[in-house]
# Entry
Amino acid sequence: MSRIYKSILPQSVRSSYGENENITFVLSFAGQKIKKGSLRLCGNLTVSNLDAADAGSVSYDALTGVHSLWSSIVVETEKRGVIENLQALPRYIHMEAETLRNDTDVLSNSEQTTSLTLARDDQTTKFLGGVVIREDLPFSCKLQCCLNKSDGDISFSRNGVITLSIRTASKNQFLTNAGATNEYSLTDVMLMYQTEQGGSSPVSASTYHMVKHTVSSGSSSVQTRVPAVCESVSCSFILASRQNQNDFNDNECAVVPSVSRLQWEFNDSLSMVKYDMTDRDEILYNYLRSMGVSDFNNVRVNTLVNENKTYGIGLNFGGVGINLLKEKIGVDIISGVDNTSPYSMYMYFRSSVSL
Amino acid sequence: MSQIRTHQLFPQYHSSTRTEFRLEPKVYLNTFRLANIQPHPSGPIHYQYLNGVGGLFQSITIFSGNTVIEESRNTHEWLAFNQLRSSNPVALDIEHSLSGTRWGGWKVGPRNDENVEMIEYGDTDPTVGPDDDPTDLTKAGTLSLQSALQFLKADDVVPLIPDLRIVIEWKTDSDVFAGDSDDITFSMDEPVLFADEVVGQKLLSSVTEKTNYRIPYYVMEFDRVRIRSVVNEAVQDETVTLRGFNGKSVRRMLVVNVPESNEHHGTDAIKKDGSSSQTLEKFNFLVNGRNYFPQGGIDSENKKLSTLAYSWGTPNINIPQGIQFNELENRETSFLRQSTVDNLRGMVSYFGMYLGQRISELQVVYSRTGRTSGTPEENNELLAFYMDVWCEVGRVLSVNNGRVQVSYA
# Structure
């Protein structure tokens, strides 16, 4: 079947985009279907005045690359309205990189490297200088939204025109150790995707719902509801004082100090998960399972103990979708956190949407 | 009782340029594999780390009598590309190490002053080579024929095809070896072929009772065009017509930039079996009268890589970050410098895409900018090169009462 490669420009084209801006694409593909996983957001990344900045120590999150530039993504279809609203997306992709891949996979798998990923943050510093002659870094980013995570081709007849809205990250969310004169900009931004004729069968795509809480005491109890049938919940943490700060990686998955007990609850009942998690390895094992199944992960002694990161908690619901609009989920965390150094807790509930 | 009987077959004919196997008329699995692949070099030498003993193959052809079912031409080039389509776990695969390659392999190296396992993408001095003792076969390589012959991927079972022959042509130039190999001459050891015969009665009878059948399959065919040399800092625009695929149904395409000259590749670790990257390279294609890519085509290194990865990346295209670019502004102080990946910079820049249509007209619309900074790698960006365009072409094998016919789909 004949393949069509499409490239579209943003709805209101600009020569360059900076922090906290909206980039909107309208995908019109009447009579056709979008090939699964074929969307690529392409452009060139430039960071200004790099030489003058703090002895050239500007860096970005290596494991996510330019994914860190998209702070939120909203997908809207003509026939069904908004079907996906992804908040705190860079952090989720960072968690995926740590739990489903190891650093060499991020360094060498072309699905990642075209998004300018690297194995370690310090490798990004010199990389930001760009390519000789171009003096920028061209990227072709596989957006991690439902349009790229479907289990089949996405038909026009079921969805109509699709609108994809992307919000760019703030400078502090993307760059670390940036000076006052360092600004990032994106040029030649376009969306590439592939289509073929036909197709009307529904497909399913994975997505998530994010809820943010604060953990500010040694015994913290968090309760929440989510408007979806969910397969798992995964949580990561960062010191609230480090969020959106110039000196720290905004996607850091920090180790929560001295976690001695973790208890998951449904509808305030302790009976569904019939045991406390008290062991760090058990907590991490359940975190890894909540993010999916992979032969690799980046959680190891060096990253966890020496670098104080790659930590998280989670629970896989065991292949059973739980309607968290009806059921309330909660977690009790007994830890060494106190009110002088509160942690932000990002809870990601994995679910799926139909397209 | 086993359903499979494995045969070790010796060549009907063997020389340093050609080896031929003839198979008895039986039903086989598609798991044909060559072993004892080893040259006899005139002096100490090593394989290229990208394709190991794969660099020795000029072509592999599978015949039924005199009818060509599939001919894999420039097999060494195809095998080199396929090495990139492996996942990291494959680096630990037993077949991978037996083929003499080191692509993406693991080794112990220093990190933070401690020895840890590190991924290695090739050093300047490959260390895997043929045995010093000509009678020894401990370092001989293996090759699964599925990696070269797409016909063998059509089905798990190769039905009864009369007069099945497999013919291998070996490369004879010393470029098959890494490093300074100009003075090396070599002959080829006699390889063996392992074939798994189906002896299980249930499966055997279901296959042999068919006297008329058709097998659709894909083969890799290629056409070659020459891109002329370019002056430093000049923009070169070339539009070249490819006629090798007219009238054929093509699923996917692969484009390889093969250096024409050996001037800067005489001592390389991977010689000319990679694909050289070019400065400010732009691709478009005129397919059956229309521009294939809108908005200026494929005009950056990462668009090129992601388009390739989507079409050929099963499971992925396994090349480390940074080497898709000729050079980074801060290479001297970056993670690339003096790392194993820097040895590959500008050497593995492939392009690929889906076509999915019958070709009546195909043109390459190509642009690059000449650039040199005086070092050998950069001079690649001035020199003429061959653009090898590989297409996955549909064919059908028909067997009618013992008469074999091969046609384009």
User: Anything to note?
Assistant: The radius of gyration of chain B is 22 Å. Chain B touches chain A through 48 residues (CB under 8 Å). The helical segments of chain B are 75-84, 94-98, 201-208, 301-312, 376-379.
